[in-house]
Amino acid sequence: MLRRAPRPPAVSGTGADAEVIALFLVKIPGSGTTPADYGLEIIGVGAATSRPAWRTEIVLPTWSRDRYLTLSAEVVGVENGIAVVRASNDDNEMTYAVNLSTRKTLWQKELAPWAVTGGAVVGPNVADPYTERHLTAFDISTGRPLWTSRKSSGAASAREAGPHLVQFTGGRGIGDRFVQLLDARTGKVRSTIDGSFADMGCTYDGKAVIVCTGGGFPAYAFALDATSADLVWQLPDESADRVAPSVTAVFNGAVYGKVTGTEGAGPVVLDSRTGLDVETSPGIAPVAVNGYVGIAPDSGSDTALAYRTTG
């Protein structure tokens, strides 16, 4: 099953101007009767030089001082020259949108951001995971509310599913589980996927399609057009006598996975646009891949191995 990988490093800009956006929790010393605070230090690191180009700091609310609660922070996403960063402890959430050119905070909200895509920041309308929650979206530049989903769920979750789409999953039992692909900007339902696929994850291939797959047996995989959300291909395909691989990674127009339980089973690479086999014996089924390396578990140990990519 293709599981959600850790978020890749957040990058702003392209080419020689590209910067990796790093985030650190810092303690701000107190003075006299003024207690110490905690803050977020945001650093822009030149992708080509690996050197810090600038840094800025955000002072967190007083709840961050609670030493009995675990404080954490992450860069949720970067779009349009704006970084969305989040700080939280066991009881509180705060999200900030920071202009990376001016280093100014554009807005802040008590929001748990689940997805940043299509110029929108998307998350639950209430923090409590034990209540019915709708998805709600805000403009990344202004923080202005954009939409609230019509459906709700006590088990709601969301993730990016492409440059303009959000995967909205909900429902606890078999009868009420659902998956929708929503337009990130408008909240319009672009595709509703059979509830039996509610445990799946959808991943943008970086070019034109969204590849969806999940657990269970037999394995299944299908692709949707990233713009229209129309079905492009699906496996298994009985008419072509083809089974589905257990997908491990999707990157740059390729689907990586492993076929099990059949003659000649093993790693395979598919073309993400057509679903056709591109390589039937690649040697590995990487769980993470980029333009430089593919990382796959070593079958003989509990370690992972990195392999240089080709092509």
Terminus-to-terminus distance: 25 Å
Please tally the helical runs, counting DSSP H or I stretches of 4 or more residues: 0
Q: How many strand segments?
A: 27
Shape: globular
The parts where pLDDT drops under 50 for at least 5 residues are none
Rounded radius of gyration (Å): 21 Å
The main pleated sheet reads as:
4 strands, antiparallel
* Overall pLDDT confidence: 89
Helix/strand order = EEEEEEEEEEEEEEEEEEEEEEEEEEE
- Lateral strand order in the biggest sheet: 1-2-3-4
Task: Record the SSE blueprint.
Blueprint: E1 10-12, E2 19-28, E3 37-46, E4 52-59, E5 72-79, E6 82-88, E7 93-99, E8 105-109, E9 115-117, E10 120-124, E11 133-139, E12 145-153, E13 157-160, E14 165-170, E15 178-183, E16 189-193, E17 201-204, E18 209-213, E19 221-225, E20 231-235, E21 246-251, E22 254-259, E23 266-271, E24 277-279, E25 288-289, E26 293-297, E27 304-308
Antiparallel strand pairs: 1-2, 2-3, 3-4, 5-6, 6-7, 7-8, 9-10, 10-11, 11-12, 13-14, 14-15, 15-16, 17-18, 18-19, 19-20, 21-22, 22-23, 23-24, 25-26, 26-27
Structure, described:
- The protein has 311 residues and is mainly beta.
- 0% of the residues lie in helices and 50% in strands.
- It has strands at 10-12, 19-28, 37-46, 52-59, 72-79, 82-88, 93-99, 105-109, 115-117, 120-124, 133-139, 145-153, 157-160, 165-170, 178-183, 189-193, 201-204, 209-213, 221-225, 231-235, 246-251, 254-259, 266-271, 277-279, 288-289, 293-297, 304-308.
- The strands form 7 sheets. The chain has a 4-stranded antiparallel β-sheet, with no helix packed on it. Strands 5-6-7-8 form a 4-stranded antiparallel β-sheet, with no helix packed on it. Strands 9-10-11-12 form a 4-stranded antiparallel β-sheet, with no helix packed on it.
- The protein is globular and about 75 Å long.
- The model has no long low-confidence stretch (mean pLDDT 89).
